[in-house]
Amino acid sequence: MERNLLIGQSGGPTAAINASLAGVVDYALHYGKFTGVLGSINGIDGVLEENFIGMEKFRAPERIRLLKQTPSSYLGSCRHKLPDEGEVYEQIFKVFEKHKISAFIYIGGNDSMDTVEKLSRYGAENGKNVAVIGVPKTIDNDLVLTDHTPGYGSAAKYIVNSIRQLALDTCVYDMKSVIVAEIMGRNAGWLTAAASLANDNHLSPVDIICLPEVLFDTSDFLTHVEKTIEEKNSTIIAVSEGIRGRNGDYILSGLAKSTAAADGFRHAALGGVGRYIEHIISENLGIKTRSIEFSTLQRCNSETASLCDIDESFLQGAEGARLASEGETGVMVGILRKSGADYEPYITSFDISLVANREKKIPEEMISKNGFFVTDEFIKYASPLISGQPKIIYNGGRIEFEVR
Amino acid sequence: MERNLLIGQSGGPTAAINASLAGVVDYALHYGKFTGVLGSINGIDGVLEENFIGMEKFRAPERIRLLKQTPSSYLGSCRHKLPDEGEVYEQIFKVFEKHKISAFIYIGGNDSMDTVEKLSRYGAENGKNVAVIGVPKTIDNDLVLTDHTPGYGSAAKYIVNSIRQLALDTCVYDMKSVIVAEIMGRNAGWLTAAASLANDNHLSPVDIICLPEVLFDTSDFLTHVEKTIEEKNSTIIAVSEGIRGRNGDYILSGLAKSTAAADGFRHAALGGVGRYIEHIISENLGIKTRSIEFSTLQRCNSETASLCDIDESFLQGAEGARLASEGETGVMVGILRKSGADYEPYITSFDISLVANREKKIPEEMISKNGFFVTDEFIKYASPLISGQPKIIYNGGRIEFEVR
Question: Does residue B140 carry a catalytic annotation?
Answer without folding.
Answer: yes
